[in-house]
Specification:
289 residues; mainly beta; 4-stranded antiparallel beta sheet; 5-stranded antiparallel beta sheet; 1 helix; single chain; globular; 22 strands
């Protein structure tokens, strides 16, 4: 946890002016944007609630918060019912909204911990969150794991600093086998390098993946031989400042991510509409006073 925070903080530099030519706009909803660092958005498919991470301006002390869309706009963010006693981040819903993945240093069986592991939590028949479950090895490891993101083909992609990688931090993936046991593997040199790759985001159709690495946004495309060598996204997206916590719209045509602007609001949300602009992220304009 500490090493990731230091890596990411070291990459942060002030934001340049927005470049023209590609539609990248700030997304600063009232009640969500603050002088702290907001990142890692996730919209609940069942309720349209917004889950996100808020931390210090230095991107430390991560906590998952949830806000509801009301007649007055986004409600004051609060801890979700499953919140634990450690730092927690990187929320991600399954498509049906019945399960949420996240990372945490929370206590397990009454034992305090300081290592980031992947957990998931399921909803019951009434829609209430149950008790989070720490997922087993080799999905988790003696190292730190972060940003678990399921792909349509059944792989769960994530970042880790575990042994056996190509750099300090790498992108890995894991899946359940026929016996119900997890297997895990490094995604390989098309995606990973001697640098730091820490967050993978498969597209809704599984044919594309955004990689957050060395402070910038990259992409790779699926081929008949696997993932193609990654390429850096346009400079309009990769202006100065660390980029983290990307989220595709359901169509895959828009991307919401956080960038450290180095300004008064520190980490801020930006949205990229690729091609024709769609109405996303969801609007929550107040309808009453």
């Amino acid at each position: 946890m500490k090493s990731r925070a230091l890596i990411l903080a070291a990459l942060a530099v002030p934001l340049n002016a927005t470049a023209a030519g590609i539609d990248v706009q700030p997304w600063k909803p009232a009640g969500i944007s603050s002088p702290k660092f907001e990142s890692h958005p996730a919209f609940d498919p069942k309720t349209n609630d917004l889950y996100f991470v808020r931390s210090s301006p230095q991107f430390q002390g991560w906590r998952i918060l949830v806000s509801h869309c009301t007649d007055q706009g986004w409600s004051a963010p609060e801890k979700p019912s499953f919140a634990g006693d450690g730092v927690e981040a990187d929320p991600c819903f399954t498509d049906d909204g019945n399960t949420l993945y996240f990372i945490s240093t929370r206590s397990v069986n009454g034992v305090k911990r300081d290592n980031l592991d992947i957990f998931n939590v399921d909803r019951d028949a009434k829609g209430a969150w149950g008790e989070p479950v720490q997922l087993p090895e080799p999905l988790n490891s003696a190292g730190a794991e972060w940003f678990p993101r399921p792909a349509p083909d059944g792989w769960l992609y994530f970042g880790s600093d575990r042994a056996g990688g190509l750099g300090a931090t790498d992108i890995w993936r894991a899946r359940l086998d026929a016996a119900g046991k997890w297997t895990a593997e490094n995604v390989g040199p098309a995606v990973n390098s001697a640098g730091d790759e820490y967050e993978p985001l498969p597209s809704p159709d599984g044919q594309r993946m955004i990689i957050m690495a060395d402070g910038d946004l990259f992409e790779t495309r699926m081929t008949d031989k696997g993932w193609a060598p990654r390429t850096r996204l346009a400079p309009e997206l990769n202006q100065s400042g660390m980029k983290v916590g990307a989220l595709f719209s359901p169509s895959g045509r828009s991307l919401l991510f956080a960038r450290d602007t180095g300004g008064p609001d520190s980490g801020e949300f930006f949205v990229w509409h690729e091609g024709e602009q769609e109405h996303w992220p969801p609007d929550c304009t107040p309808t009453s006073k």
